[in-house]
């Protein structure tokens, strides 16, 4: 039995892209069933290039980073327990700004 391939889109906005090599959009192909918590771990290990403390706090997204999945607040979808679906669009928006 082969694992199903899951394709999703990641987007970073309002400064969040600076933590990910200044890349605003990425297409990912992941194997099998993936919960949001696993996606965050994958992102930390593979594409988070700058100051992880500005993106993650413990095992979750730091307060001040808004997360939208298909234009819906991730808090309404179960946050870390949300099971990613084919062609999901995950948008991270930073509200953290220096002054």
UniProtKB/TrEMBL annotation:
Which keywords does UniProt give here?
Cytoplasm, Isopeptide bond, tRNA processing, Ubl conjugation pathway
Any Pfam family: Urm1
The record places the cross-link (Glycyl lysine isopeptide (Gly-Lys) (interchain with K-? in acceptor proteins)) at 99
Query: Which Gene3D superfamilies does the annotation name?
Result: 3.10.20.30
GO cellular-component term (any): cytosol
Q: Where in the cell is it found?
A: Cytoplasm
Task: List every position bearing 1-thioglycine.
Answer: 99
Q: Which SUPFAM superfamilies does this UniProt record tie to the protein?
A: MoaD/ThiS (SSF54285)
* Statement: the UniProt record of this protein carries the keyword Cytoplasm: yes
Superkingdom of the source?
Answer: Eukaryota
Note the InterPro entries from the entry. Beta-grasp_dom_sf, Mopterin_synth/thiamin_S_b, Urm1
Functional pathway: tRNA modification; 5-methoxycarbonylmethyl-2-thiouridine-tRNA biosynthesis
BP-aspect Gene Ontology terms = protein urmylation; tRNA thio-modification; tRNA wobble uridine modification
Post-translational events: C-terminal thiocarboxylation occurs in 2 steps, it is first acyl-adenylated (-COAMP) via the hesA/moeB/thiF part of the MOCS3/UBA4 homolog, then thiocarboxylated (-COSH) via the rhodanese domain of the MOCS3/UBA4 homolog.
Assembly and partners are described as: Interacts with cer.
State the family named in the UniProt similarity comment for this chain.
Belongs to the URM1 family.
Q: Which PANTHER family match?
A: RURM1 PROTEIN (PTHR14986)
- What is the purpose of this protein? Acts as a sulfur carrier required for 2-thiolation of mcm(5)S(2)U at tRNA wobble positions of cytosolic tRNA(Lys), tRNA(Glu) and tRNA(Gln). Serves as sulfur donor in tRNA 2-thiolation reaction by being thiocarboxylated (-COSH) at its C-terminus by the MOCS3/UBA4 homolog. The sulfur is then transferred to tRNA to form 2-thiolation of mcm(5)S(2)U. Also acts as a ubiquitin-like protein (UBL) that is covalently conjugated via an isopeptide bond to lysine residues of target proteins.
Protein name as it appears in the record: Ubiquitin-related modifier 1 homolog
